[in-house]
Design brief:
This protein is an alpha+beta fold. About 20% of the residues lie in helices and about 15% in strands. The chain has two domains: about 55 residues, no CATH class; about 130 residues, Histidine kinase-like ATPase, C-terminal domain (Heat Shock Protein 90). The longest helix is centred in the middle third of the chain and has 15 residues. It starts with 9 loop residues before the first strand and ends with a strand.
Length: about 210
């Protein structure tokens, strides 16, 4: 790697957790992506790419855009799909000390690419592992543990409050993916974890599936 004998360096995961003698067996597994840096918080000089390998649930392949857990027959299902996407933002911003900002933008400018629905919030952000878990179909927000916790980590079911928004829309980890593929053919998640300088991006494509 071209490291001088007297040069200090660290090896970290994409979540910036340092690999040491004590953490090696916990952090280093087959297929894991590691950084070789001068320090744990070193700024990356260029973008890196990490391939996510998982076996998609068959529903991802054959039912993309279908919604099995709420009745939409005879109804306009678009509000349900948007509600699922907003649910992620509600959970992500639930611990904000200041203003909770959630925006929905409908993009139709052909010069900027294909039409899209963008949901933007100022939540706590997701690590690369949390984005990985979001991609895995049917990984419930209540069962994601440890370093593989989801964007719903620490979720506490809110008390029922009339006429208010909480994060109690989706339970089973299927809503976001179903909503995305109902609205369009691909999803792009861009997230910067709080207290981190790294920006993570995840792309899911129905065509690739």
């Amino acid at each position: 790697f071209g490291i001088a004998a007297a040069e200090n360096f660290v090896i970290t995961t994409t979540n910036r957790k340092e690999v040491t003698e004590n953490t090696f067996s916990e952090l280093v597994q087959d297929g894991v992506t590691l950084y070789l840096l001068q320090s744990v918080d070193q700024m990356l000089l260029s973008a890196t790419k990490e391939r996510i390998d998982f076996l998609p649930h068959y529903d991802t392949l054959v039912k993309s855009g279908m919604y099995e857990y709420y009745a939409s027959e005879g109804q306009n299902p678009l509000p349900f799909a948007l509600a699922e996407l907003i649910d992620n933002s509600l959970s992500a911003t639930s611990r904000n000390a200041g203003i909770r900002s959630i925006q929905i933008k409908l993009l139709f400018d052909d010069s900027q690419g294909k039409p899209a629905v963008a949901v933007i919030d100022n939540g706590r952000g997701m690590t690369s592992k949390q984005l990985n878990n979001w991609a895995v179909y049917r990984l419930s927000k209540f069962t994601r543990k440890g370093d593989f916790e989801s964007d719903h980590s620490g979720y506490v079911r809110p008390l029922p409050v009339p006429r208010s928004l909480n994060s109690d829309i989706s339970y089973f980890g299927v809503g976001g993916k179903q909503a995305v593929f109902f609205v369009g053919q691909s999803a792009r998640m861009i997230s910067k974890p709080a207290q981190s300088q790294d920006v993570h991006e995840l792309v899911l494509s129905k065509e690739d599936f």
